[in-house]
Specification:
It contains 5 helices and 10 strands. The protein is of the alpha/beta class. The protein has 2 domains: 154 residues, Glucose Oxidase, domain 1 (3-Layer(bba) Sandwich); 82 residues, Herpes Virus-1 (2-Layer Sandwich), CATH 3.30.40.10. The strands form 2 sheets. A 7-stranded mixed beta barrel has the order 1-2-6-5-4-3-7. It has a 3-stranded antiparallel beta sheet with strand order 8-9-10. Helix 1 packs antiparallel against helix 4 and helix 4 packs antiparallel against helix 5. The longest helix has 52 residues. The structure holds 2-acetamido-2-deoxy-beta-D-glucopyranose (NAG) (2 copies). One 2-acetamido-2-deoxy-beta-D-glucopyranose binds next to strand 1 and strand 2.
């Protein structure tokens, strides 16, 4: 509500207060808005024919409760008719003599925590969860409170399905998960909207104080202009000094409607374009203020 009572002189101090508030919010945000986001580099290696193919991409996002560390191993699918690893008895079809392995699990069916723990129970060194179909290659930091010391990353659906098909065809796929870069998309988003809001507020404040005096100025300028036009119009109206015998002195005629005095010889009258007449001393101030005839409202500027 106090914003509504801003006076022009208070604008600059309000702007600086807003600026200070926004800086305060920015500084306090990273703590209040939670964790930063860490991407994961996935070095995917597999063999096609005689060729070893290896691709490296920043295609994963570490889970919020995952340790940030490098982990590698052969990629293993859950056994059974689905890939969600929600069944606590889920087995993983890992090859013989595997030291370290990573579970590739689809999102959905149960919580991230649940499926990560199912894989960890079976000895997985890391869990890669791929997003829902239709999400392209989008991934986000999962929340999986209560998982043990197991690395968990999310990858996009397309990448996940690609790996799934390779492994289902019997291709031996290994992945090295490396800690990528720190990002703060949520923060950025928040900051962007905050800045948009603040910019809009400050801009409207500035526009407000820039426009108000100008509007005020232009309205007074216009009033002065009108006053000058009225003065000019008054000056062009006919004046007459009354003398004996003038019909205006007829006792049956009206008195001056402004001062209610009857007209006497030597009185100076002003005759308007509508033919109504009044004492000059009476009608001139009235016309300056109203610019219309007090009798018939005819506008002296329009005639
Ligand atoms: C990916 O991993 C393979 C096998 O460990 C390795 O030979 C290759 O250099 C790695 N690629 C990159 C870009 O790190
Ligand atoms: C996993 O393997 C064990 C032992 O072979 C078996 O008893 C269990 O039913 C399997 N779990 C599922 C979900 O098939």
């Amino acid at each position: 509500m106090s914003l509504l009572r801003i006076t022009p002189s208070a604008h600059s101090s309000v702007s600086s207060r807003l600026l200070r508030l926004s800086i305060f919010l920015l500084l306090s945000l990273p703590n209040s808005k939670g964790k930063a986001i860490w991407t994961a580099y996935l070095n995917i290696t597999f063999q096609v024919g005689n060729r070893i193919i290896s691709e490296l991409g920043e295609s994963g996002v570490f889970g919020n409760h995952s340790p940030l560390k490098r982990v590698s191993g052969v990629v293993v699918l859950p056994e059974g008719w689905n890939q969600n690893a929600c069944n606590p008895m889920t087995n993983f079809s890992k090859p013989e003599q595997t030291d370290s392995w990573l579970a590739l699990i689809e999102r959905g069916g149960c919580t991230f925590t649940h499926k990560i723990n199912v894989a960890a129970e079976k000895g997985a060194d890391g869990v890669i969860i791929y997003n829902y179909p239709g999400m392209g290659n989008r991934a986000f930091p999962m929340s999986h409170q209560g998982t043990k010391n197991v690395v968990a990353v999310m990858i996009g659906n397309l990448k996940g399905i690609e790996l799934l098909y390779l492994i289902q065809k019997g291709v031996y796929v290994t992945i090295i998960i490396e800690v990528g870069r720190i990002h703060a998309p949520c923060l950025n988003h928040y900051v962007t909207s905050l800045f948009t809001f603040l910019t809009a507020t400050v801009t409207s404040l500035l526009l407000c104080c820039a426009c108000r005096p100008r509007a005020h100025n232009s309205s007074t300028r216009r009033q002065r202009q009108i006053k000058a036009e009225v003065k000019k119009a008054i000056g062009e109206l006919q004046l007459q000094v009354l003398k004996e015998g003038d019909k205006e002195l007829d006792p049956n005629e009206d008195s001056c409607v402004v001062c209610f005095d009857i007209y006497k010889p030597q009185d100076v009258i002003r005759i308007l374009t509508c033919k109504h007449f009044f004492h000059k001393a009476c009608i001139d101030p009235w016309l300056l203020a109203h610019s219309t005839c007090p009798m018939c409202k005819c506008d002296i500027l329009k005639t």
